[in-house]
Structures are given as structure tokens and as C-alpha cells.
Amino acid sequence: MNCFQRIAIIALIACSSLGAWKAPAAEAAAKSVVLVHGAFADGSSWAKVIPLLQAKGLNVIAVQNPLSSLAADVDAARRAIEAQTGPVILVGHSYGGVVITQAGVHPKVAALVYVAAFAPPKGESVNGLGKGQPAPPWSGSIKADSGGYLSLMPEGIAKFFAQDLPAKEIAILAATQGPTFGGAFDDKVTETAYAAKPSWYVVAKQDRMIPPDLEMAMAKAANAKITAVESSHVAMLSKPKEVAEVILAAAASVKE
Length: 256
Prior knowledge:
Elements: H1 3-20, H2 23-28, E1 32-36, H3 50-54, E2 59-63, H4 70-82, E3 88-93, H5 96-103, E4 109-115, H6 126-129, E5 142-144, E6 149-152, H7 154-161, H8 167-176, E7 180-181, E8 199-204, H9 212-221, E9 225-229, H10 235-238, H11 240-252
Parallel strand pairs: 1-2, 1-3, 3-4, 4-8, 8-9
Antiparallel strand pairs: 5-6, 6-7
Helix pairs in contact: 4-5
């Protein structure tokens, strides 16, 4: 057998092997969970939930919102959604609920999960939802920088944001929070993805940032499947197993 015959045989074997390899096609159908954090937070706020979802074979991505405007945050979520090859379960916490309400109209999004989150009606903003109501107690714990970006002071995180977490975790939340442009809370949604797509909602019964009654009302208005947990505003950190179970239920409802 000469060298040219050997090369031909090797090439034939290589082509046969490539033709039998089906991994990319299988991967293309995989479900993905895209996690959208809220104000005064970053993607690490999902750190306890992510491994629980990954253990079930889901592809998981935590978006890092710029928190500069609703449009910018929606763009960040949309890029993460578009990068996925299969159906997406879009999850939002707190202000992140406004983001997924807008971004969730993307055709790849098959289900929505709200975690102690805003689910505003079309044409409404976060501040609009509280119009006519007294300023929330936590507003006294807000500080603004020279650019109009707001942060929640450590004592506010301990008292209102994450009162059921250990002190060490509260300190981490304070250190990793993303400053949020105050004007983002006036930005209105122009789309309501929950009107056309199945939704789930985790109500945090001990929430001191968003009134639990408001959470329940928004969940019902969105026709969401509701799970109530004994948790502070950061249910994904204080009750990660329960939150993961809701996300997994949403994922199970989605056909690949």
C-alpha cells in the first residue's frame, strides 16, 4: 500500500466519524435558563440557585445588567437569550421582573419566572406602580452618587433587603451590589411577555422591599402559577431550593 492509498483510507475514516457525530444537534435542543438580577444586585445573587439547576442538566446563564436604563438592561437580557440554541426559561428578580416582562417577548423565550419581582402592566414603570403610596421605609437607606446612581446602604440591606440571611452574606451583598440609575425606575414597559407566555411567580411572604400583597396581585394579573415562600426579598438566596423547584417546574413544561 503506497502513501496515497494510506491517506485516502485515513480521510475516509475521518469523514465517516464526522458523519456519525451527533453531539451538536443534541446540544442545540438543550433548554437554557437565563437569570436576570434586580436593582442593588448583580449576577452573583443567583449563586445558590445555579448549581441546583445545572445538576438537572440545564444550561444556566446569569446576566450582568448595566442597571443604567430599562432599555440597556433589556438589551443585555436579549443578547443572552439570542446566544442560546434551544428554548429559554427567562427568570427575573425584583426590578429584573420589569426586564423580563419586556425582553420575554423574544421568540426563544418559552416561559417566564418572577421571583419577588415586578410584573408591570403595559405602559407602567416601577415608580408608577407605587404612585400615590407613601415612600417605602427602605428609601431612607438609599444613597446617590454624583451620576444619579443609587445604592442601598449596608444597614438597609440588613434590615429590608435580606433580613433573613447571615451577617457574612449580607456583607457580600453590600459589597457586590450594582449601583442603579434612579431614572430606570421611571422607564415604562411597552411589552408584556406574560400576556402570551406561561408564567410562574415566587411570592416572598416576608419581603420588605416589595409588599407581598403587591407581589400576589401582580402574579394573579399575570395569570402566573404562584408559590409563596417564607422569605425576605432575596428568596433565591434564603430559599434557593424552593426557588429552583419553581424554575425546574417551568423548565419541565417546555418541550425541546
